[in-house]
Specification:
Blueprint: H1 2-11, H2 15-27, H3 34-45, H4 55-59, H5 61-81, H6 88-100, H7 107-124, H8 132-137, H9 142-150, H10 156-185, H11 192-210, H12 226-247, H13 255-259, H14 269-273, H15 275-295, H16 302-313, H17 321-337, H18 345-353, H19 358-364, H20 366-387, H21 394-415, H22 417-426
């Protein structure tokens, strides 16, 4: 028992998350006054929020950072109070929560889903701390709650009760479904809940459509403010890098070992290699992808920042420099050859979130990762129609199909007589 307390005290503390959340809230004051932030936050809370709704275009930059910061702060405080161990998956989930709170998640639409997961735990006699991942990632279906309440033209009270009922139901079915669907892609997409939420979103979209309530497509995008936001991003990543270096004993030890890990879920890098080297990995990923976005001339707006911060968070849970680069090459190559505009916000969002397939590159090599990234671009443009934008983890949904298709093929190639015979001859 005493060993566990020391472990928690020394290795699983929420100060970093809490300080970051507060810093983000204060950063929002650079862009807007408190009055403008409050007014903008109200518009965010009452937005239908389906993909692709950039909260910077809805409520302004200040209100968007306030929304993301306050949601992450509240989540961190609740988890800290419940003595939830701050593992790699929890850190990834918190930064994904933050990232998607820039374009789709807010306090209004996340509460009922969390309530549903909590009720499921009570019914099944399961400790809520073991369901935290389901609760945090399951909020990807927040737009389903917001759209039913604010997008269908229903009276507020009627919309409120129906949407919250749907949200609670979503939370109730998430845990058993996510456990089942993990077998579908075998852990080769890091956004397992994204695939689960896509299936649930498909059902919700189907029910709405059967009552002539089909979800309308939307693309509400802000130009952002690249200079100020870029300075904040690079400052945060440099701070994380330096902090990780000192936390790792002023060294880069274990970095090579981390890069040798395939990243296949579940891979808690923090538990295996230490949080210090993971912070270094996270910072490098953040710097590389922020630089790539700026090089491509894209705005640092809600969806793109959401992608960068999600990559940053998963730098402790499955993603590293070696397994994301092949996915990046594959997606860029696909956009260079296909009919879609490569220098656009939707394209950049796909490039960023396609990194959920990084474990494929980590396990099967560079060429396999390039093919996976290429395939992701083709599939992601189609599956969004299935859930109508009610699932924010659209790339997680498509990634499940890509992994489920490619992994058996790669395994067959690896185990085939032809390749084994060639390998024996080479030996």
């Amino acid at each position: 028992m005493s060993t566990e307390k020391i472990y928690v005290k020394n290795h699983y503390r929420y100060e970093f998350i809490i300080v970051f959340s507060i810093a983000v809230i204060l950063f929002g004051l650079i862009f807007d006054s408190p009055k403008e932030i409050i007014e903008g936050y109200y518009r965010i809370l009452t937005s239908p929020s389906q993909l692709l709704t950039d909260y910077m275009a809805v409520g302004g930059i200040g209100a968007t950072f306030f929304n993301a910061g306050i949601l992450m702060l509240l989540a961190a405080i609740v988890l800290w109070k419940r003595k939830q161990l701050l593992t790699g998956p929890i850190i990834a989930a918190l930064f994904a929560l933050f990232g998607f709170s820039l374009f789709g998640k807010n306090l209004f639409n996340t509460i009922p889903i969390t309530m549903g997961v909590y009720i499921y735990g009570k019914i099944e006699g399961i400790e809520f701390n073991t369901l935290t991942i389901n609760s945090l990632f399951g909020t990807a279906l927040g737009p389903a709650v917001s759209y039913i309440c604010f997008g269908l033209g229903l009276p507020f009270y009627q919309g409120f009760f129906i949407s919250y009922g749907v949200g609670i139901l979503i939370g109730l079915v998430l845990p058993p479904l996510s456990k089942s669907f993990l077998k579908f892609h075998q852990g080769y997409t890091l956004y397992n809940l994204g695939f689960t939420c896509g299936i649930i979103g498909l059902f919700i979209q189907g029910v709405l459509k059967s009552f002539s309530l089909e979800v309308s497509n939307i693309r509400l995008i802000s130009p952002g403010d690249n200079l100020k936001i870029a300075v904040f991003m690079y400052a945060f990543f440099i701070f994380s890098f330096v902090g990780g270096y000192f936390l790792n004993g002023k060294s880069f030890s274990n970095f090579k070992n981390l890069l040798s890990n395939s990243g296949r879920a579940p891979s808690d890098f923090g538990h295996i290699y230490g949080r210090g080297i993971c912070l270094i990995n996270m910072a490098l990923l953040g710097i590389i992808y922020t630089t790539f976005v700026l090089y491509m001339g894209q705005p640092l707006n809600g969806p793109i920042l959401g992608g960068i911060f999600t990559i940053f968070g998963f730098g402790i849970f499955g993603k590293h420099l070696k397994n994301v680069i092949p996915i990046l090459i594959g997606t860029v190559l696909a956009y260079a050859l296909n009919i879609y505009e490569p220098k656009s916000v939707p394209a950049m969002v796909t490039v960023l979130f396609a990194t959920n397939l990084a474990p494929i590159a980590g396990e099967y090599g560079m060429f396999a990762g390039i093919v996976a990234g290429f395939a992701q671009v083709s599939i992601v443009s189609v599956v969004g129609l299935l859930h109508g934008g009610l699932n924010l983890y659209n790339n997680g949904f498509s990634g499940g199909f890509v992994a489920a298709t490619l992994v058996p093929i790669y395994n067959a190639i690896r185990e085939s007589r032809f390749f084994n015979m060639r390998r024996d001859k080479d030996d």
